[in-house]
Amino acid sequence: MIGAGAMKPENYETKPIFTLAGVGKTFRSGTRALQTIDITVLSGAFVSLVGPSGCGKSTLLRIIAGLLPPSQGRVHWESDVTGHIGFVFQEPTLMPWATVWDNVYLPLRLAGRSRNDASASIARTLASLGLGGFEQAYPRELSGGMRMRVSIARALVKAPSLLLLDEPFAALDELTRFRLNEDLLRLWGEQRWTVVFVTHSVFEAVFLSNRIVVMTPRPGRIVADLPIDLPYPREGSLRTATAYAERCRAVSAVLNEAVL
Amino acid sequence: MNARGRERLAGIAAPLVAGVLFLAGWQAVVQWQGIPPYILPSPVAIAEALWRDGPSLLGSLLVTLRITAAALVAAIVLGGALAILFAQSRLLEISLFPYAVILQVTPVVAIAPLIIIWVNDTFLALLVCAWIVAFFPIVANTTLGLNSADRNLVELFRLYGASRWQTLRYLRLPAALPYFLAGVRISGGLALIGAVVAEFVAGTGGAETGLAYRILEAGYRLQIPKLFAALLLLSATGIAIFAALSWITRRLIGHWHESALPRDD
Asked: Which of A68, A186, B186, B206 could bond to B137 as cystine, CB 3.0-4.6 Å?
């Protein structure tokens, strides 16, 4: 495994993976999306960016991915992660003409791996997301939740160092979202890639992350950076625990204060 | 029989009944009014002409079909290649696309005489005329299709460092396939029209004559039932081309594209 897997346990959350230094973004239309973002993300961390729509959290994610150049500042990488970033969009964004297997094969195919060579990684990734037996299905034959699983499998199949997720579960029903939250946490516990997770749900962010970055709009900026000290592994039962409710209340309070 | 089966039966039976009624009315009007066959032949007279002249008309149809097929293949190859070229360079697209439009909007009847002067071989001249009519829908549709790949997927390809060729091969071409096929379906009919129109203008020198020439000839000789028989063959051919191309479309993209999915009402 590249990145996190090769690292010694004591290095978790001590060694930075990247640092944003004074990153700002003004679009060509004149819209100021982001204003001086400074943040360091540690290797193996699960960081959530939380904020109302228009706070520039998706823009920030795209700048980290290298899909959008910042107008000011820069992204400093501790090591070269080119080709080892997984990205999950709000929509599953699958190729409708390709089967589940071929959709998950895409990152490996683009890296020049043959189908035979890739099949073991693909089988393992599909199984880990409960997609075994769906290899030959087309996206249109799957439910929204299953499509999102395929999208996550595609992001994970190349064993990424960094996983970026842009409100991936926003369009799903609550039960499906909870189950995907738990599966994502389980896989993170096993494989320990670094995660930057964009969401507008405080409850989702608290459940998943060990660090929450709260952002506000016009222009987008960071107003709070909160550690979430709930121990892992976190199970579904955490959702009804008092400790969880307290953290949610604390983050909501910060968010409300910042937005109003 | 379930609702779906009944609907399918109705879809076949209803137009059939309407057609039979129309033909019966036509036959009745021609007989009762005593309209001479050189003004309007009755359906029975047309059927007789089709039976009598069918074999020789089929030979001419084959000539027209050869031009149609060659023009369609040329339109697919050149139109597809041009669209892929456009997708590679925006500058090339904005430089050349207007000329493709000009070629499309200029009536083929008007430029056919020129082409016949410039191109010595008659078959080739007719082929060029039919190609001019047929190639535009393929260029326009395929260009649109190549440019309409999901933007997030395009970004994903970029994130994984995909080469230009990989993006074309694994993303833009499959995304363009439904558009391309829709273009081909339109072009199939247009190639036939182009072949007929060109022959109307050019005539066919030599021993082999296409259906258009036979229609003209029947008109001059006031063999109107035969003219109708040739027309009938021509539209049957157009329908057959469309049906064949629709079948190919379903075979190629039926397993994933929205347009080919069964409706669940």
From this structure: B186
